[in-house]
Protein 1
Amino acid sequence: MNVGIVGCGMIRAPYLRTCGRSGLLNLVACSDLLEERALGACREVQDNGWGNPKACSYEEMLQDDGVDMVINITNPTAHYRLNKMALEAGKHVYCEKPLCVTIEEANELLQIAEKNGKLLCCAPDTFLGAGHQATRAAIDSGDIGEPTAAVLFFAGGGPDGYHEYPDFFFQPGAGPMLDIGVYSLTQLITILGPVEDVAGHSKITFPERTVLSSKRFGQKIKVEVPTHVSASLLFKNGVIGTFVTSFDIKGGHNLPHAEIYGTEGTISLPDPNQFNGKPRLFRADDPEKGGRELKLSCGYSGKNRGIGAVDLAASLKNGRRPRASGELAAHVLEVALSIYESADTGRHVRIQSSPQRPEPMPERLVEDF
């Protein structure tokens, strides 16, 4: 499948590498508002022997009948417009998270994709990695009995401490909820199934942030979205989850990434922003009270960001549903935005969408082609 990438900023490297090594994706075009970044991406692909893409405008990419799929890794506020343009141009789409910034936009994109017979998929795809798949396999096998509760935390000091251009992280479409919190939500939803009801609280701890990276050291950023969010999640299967995501945790913390509690044991989950990790199983009848590491159950445990786009291509080849589907991403977006709504109104919010759980990953995806 011939692929064009739009947005050639900081996150491009793992996508270029995954496209180049997959055997299913042939990168033929790169586009960016800054032409030098598109040219740099093309050179990176050529230097590694992954192909010979051209640098072009986004309009030229969409007019090219040789481009089958667009991978959209631009800033969040551009996702809806660029995704819509690609779908209407007859391209399959794989998008960085979030899919867009409103529920209405997400539903419209899904409708356009269905109408045009195209697939719409979205990050995060880290749940396809070895650590998360091992966790899911253990829970599906009944290793902790019936799941009853969960906690999930994704918190830190914020991107103003390291990112060269952190402004958009504090604008609508980002914040800790849609930048990092969606990793935790996707991790739990793909293991436990969809969320049914949420109740949340949120705040802006620091109305103004200071850039600490070298190029813009000392510059100020106005904060426009909540930077600390906590919520209670009721999953459709009855599990109650406690969720915290934040850019306001200074000096580090000792919180787990996530834990799922069951009637016969507990599983401690790996980092939802990585493909690897070492999930641990604790059982009441286990004499080893420190728990035991779970055996990783599929081959993706490295820097495989973009494997969801490879899975999209594989799903077309095999006639099955893609795992990192637009329906899943739209549900995660609805849960996230409903937490905001609950925080604003002081009321529980019922979730309308209810996507199917994606299929487990095979031992190695390449054998699934």
Protein 2
Amino acid sequence: MANKVWAYIDQFKGTATPASWEAVATARKLAGELGGGVTAVIIGSGVEALAQTAFHYGADEVLLADDPALADYRGEAYASTLVAAAKDGSPALILFPTNSRGREVAGMAAMDLNSGVIPDVTELKLEGESVTATRPVYAGKLLAKVTCAAQPQLVTLRARAFGKPEADSSRSGTVAKIAAVAGSDKVKVSGYADADARLSLTDAGVIVSGGRGTSNRADLQPPASITDEKEKEIWRAQQGFRLIGELAEVLGAAVGASRAAVDAGYIPYANQVGQTGKVVSPDLYIACGISGAIQHQAGMRSSKVIVAINKDAEAPIFKLARYGVVGDLYDIVPALTKAMKDRLGK
């Protein structure tokens, strides 16, 4: 366990998040500069098959804690298992994906390792054995350069910020078993609820999002059974999101939303992009009927290409967009969907 750079593999029921492989690939680049190897840490139950994938993305060694006691994710148990391995292996740097589990494990581990966490990083530069991390601050308006004086340095990487990693199926490595640390029994997982099975926002290369503008088509008449004005508004918004969903389906995209649309009851919170929702970095972000409040920009500012569709030519979103269309999304989105179908042969 002499490798200085480690990558934590976040997984659920044996399936790793794509951002975990981005962490391994980034660790590979840093390890190349340090002259050492990469250790991937996999914690769970029935997760041994993930080791080979970790080798393909750049790991030289896998520390594997495969134990029935770790079948359900519990932050304390996973962090304690990682901490025990880190105290034995003394890494200089541990990389995590920026998601709810990755942030929790990183934060808990930092406490026990007497170190700190640099969260939601979009760029890393190695200086000796220390890294200088770049991360957005003030809702993405500024970029801060941050260092951690303690070791190990714990860093969470923003999904898709470091590029899609390339797998090399010819690579292999060694697997070392490590002991599971069950931690406290105060937290128990009683069950799971099925979530929307559509494409994850954080993993999506293309996102089509809707805002309050989805409800602005007053000439749309809801069924006679809907008499409440708020319910009429929600019904109109759902017609707008249906158009957005059709475009997303053609593009193989995820559907997002602004906080205003979520707060108004148009779409579930799971679709929210922004400071209090998901932070995303897709190759293409299409904002439909979204004014572009700073809280929303904080969640999508790092998108590679931003397209804005809005009736208000003065909407703040146009200052951020590379391409802007001034018009009603009810007119523009169906035309765009048809054009994409023709172009893609669908």
